[in-house]
Structures are given as C-alpha cells and as structure tokens.
Amino acid sequence: KQEVTQIPAALSVPEGENLVLNCSFTDSAIYNLQWFRQDPGKGLTSLLLIQSSQREQTSGRLNASLDKSSGRSTLYIAASQPGDSATYLCAVFLDAGNMLTFGGGTRLMVKP
Amino acid sequence: EAQVTQNPRYLITVTGKKLTVTCSQNMNHEYMSWYRQDPGLGLRQIYYSMNVEVTDKGDVPEGYKVSRKEKRNFPLILESPSPNQTSLYFCASSGLGEGKTQYFGPGTRLLVL
Fold it and tell me: Is the CB of B105 less than 8 angstroms away from the CB of A43?
C-alpha cells in the first residue's frame, strides 16, 4: 500500500526566505504527483501537477521536482510572503490504480 | 466557471438519520471521488468513480454509499450516520485526459450527534 510522508509537519519562516517542502512515497510506480494548498477551513487548491515522465514543474514562485526512483518530491517556494501561509499537501496516483493517496501536509507560517 | 459544488456546506444531524451530500461538477470529468479529512489522520479516500455506473471503494468506505447515475453528479450517502463520521468531507473530480489533475469542492462539514 502506498504511503506518503511530508516533512516537516510544520514550518515557520521570516518573510522573504526561500524554502523547501518535502514529500516522500513508498511505491515509485506512480502515475502523477500533485501539490495542493489548503487554507484553514477551506478546500484544496491545486498548485502543481507532475506526471511520472516529468522531472519538474514551475508556476510563478513555485517549483516542484520529482525523483521517482528515490520516491521523493520537493516543493520550492521562492521569496516567501505572509500570503503563502497555509497547509501544503502532496498526493500521488499509483500507476496501477485509481486511488489518490495524500501526505499529512506541512503547515507553513510566513512571518512579516 | 469551471467548478465542483457540494451541498450542504454545513450539516448537523443525529445518529441514524439518513443523509445525502451532493456533489456536482461542470467540467465533463470522468473521474469523481469523495474524501474525508480528520485531524491527525489527514485526507483519506472514501469512494471513487471512473465513469457513470462505475464506482469502487477507497481506503475508508465503511458506512458510506455512493452512486453515479449521471456523469456530473456523485452523491455521498450515509444511511445510518454515527458520531465517528463527524468530519470534513471533500468531493473532487478530474478529467482522465488532463493527467488526472484533481479539482476539489469547497467541503462539507458534518457533525453527527
């Protein structure tokens, strides 16, 4: 069974800092990996999706990388802002199935 | 506007009283699914559907039913709710031709007394 782990569980940084969020998964036979943002009490907003054949995706200040062989993905946030404060979740689809498995999330606080 | 809608957004009910949470998407997506989110347990998949009349269990299907009679709708049914089903529920959809990018609804907060 696929297991997805996110480290750290919580992170507090000063505004302007570049930061990296980590996601690891146990089964490397994935179809894709998706990063989401969730604000308190709200739904999930898709940030980036990386197909299994891709190595990275970029959107604005966000860059996500994927290393299937080692079972890892990272989300890089450049020049962090207080508005980036939220919980960030990664989720993977396995090749062989249609179930989506989520990590526990990283709760990020960016202080002004 | 492309979106996934859920109703109701908030619901308080009592043990054993059947309820249905509706989910609808306007993107002609084949894939739809339901999740529950609980503190310390994260998001877990309840059921998913690959297309009309095709549904399958996720990680935590016990106590839930679903149906997919139309492509746009995927209701979640709790036939006899219990307090351990108190949770935040999300519906999501994706088009199989879009690399399975998931689009989430706003969530339904359920309290079972």
Answer: yes
Distance CA A91, CA B10 (A): 26
| pLDDT tens by residue, chain B, 113 residues | 889 999 999 999 999 999 999 999 999 999 999 999 998 888 999 999 989 999 999 999 999 999 999 999 999 999 999 999 999 999 999 987 666 788 999 999 999 99
Please state, in angstroms and as integers, the Cα–Cα distance from residue A97 to each residue in A2, A87, B55, B57, following that order: 11, 26, 13, 11
**Residue B3, SS3?**
coil
Separation of CA B57 from chain center: 12
> Per the structure block, which two tokens stand in for A93?
């689809």
Q: Could you please report the per-residue DSSP string of B11-69? A: EEE-TT--EEEEEEESS--SEEEEEEEETTTEEEEEEEEEETTEEEE-S--TT-EE--S
B7 near A CB under 8 A: no
A82-102 pLDDT tens trace = 999 999 999 998 766 678 899
B105 contact residues in A (CB cutoff 8 A): 43
Q: Report the residue from B44, B48, B106 with minimal CB separation from A98.
A: B48
Q: Does B104 touch chain A (CB under 8 A)?
A: yes
